[in-house]
Amino acid sequence: MTPLRLVALLLGLVVLFPPAAGAQALPVFDQGRTYPREADLQRAIQPYQAALAADTRNARAHYWLGFAYLYAYRHYRGGLAPYAAGYLPRALASLRQAVQLDGKFVPAISALHDALILSGQDEEATVLLKRLLEMTRPPGQTYQVPPG
């Protein structure tokens, strides 16, 4: 990756995930690795837990924590994280909180949709999908979610 592209990518991340006023920026959860031991994942999520200890209304911290739990749960389903069997409810709780705190936070809504699908909550997932489509639809374009 060229240095110019790297700078553009980093600027894009700041625009998409700006820190709240007076808050420290949260690190992006590292999806480029697996967390074979629960202690490894616990170290990775520590910044999000610390941010929530400081401010329970931090939607970004709830998002990243929920995202990390969802990531670990997916690895559990693939046989890579045996400790993460019970992480889907944790992911759902954190992601729901993130969406409740910031109803326009598209990455949180999208991750919550994925977690709902994995948990078999298809009706709630469909409602969220419709919401995402409305939020991200280009002006003048129409489309509908197929039934069922």
Keywords for this structure?
148 residues; mainly alpha; Serine Threonine Protein Phosphatase 5, Tetratricopeptide repeat
List the helices and strands and how they pair.
Layout: H1 3-16, H2 38-54, H3 59-77, H4 87-101, H5 106-118, H6 122-136
Helix pairs in contact: 2-3, 3-4, 3-5, 4-5, 5-6
* CATH architecture heading: Alpha Horseshoe
CATH top-level class: Mainly Alpha
The geometry reads as globular
Poorly predicted ranges (pLDDT <50, ≥5 residues)? 2-15
Strand content: under 5%
**Overall average residue pLDDT:** 85
Kindly name the structural category.
mainly alpha
Gyration radius over CA:
16 Å
Number of helices: 6
DSSP helix fraction: 55-70%
CATH homologous superfamily (4th level) name: Tetratricopeptide repeat domain
> What would the CATH topology be?
Serine Threonine Protein Phosphatase 5, Tetratricopeptide repeat
Helices and strands, in order, run as: HHHHHH
How many domains make up the coordinates? Answer: 1
Describe this structure in words.
The structure is a single chain. With 148 residues, this protein is an all-alpha fold. It has one domain: Alpha Horseshoe (Serine Threonine Protein Phosphatase 5, Tetratricopeptide repeat). The protein is 63% helix and 0% strand. The chain has six helices and no strands. The N terminus is likely disordered.
Q: Gist?
A:
The protein has 148 residues and is mainly alpha-helical.
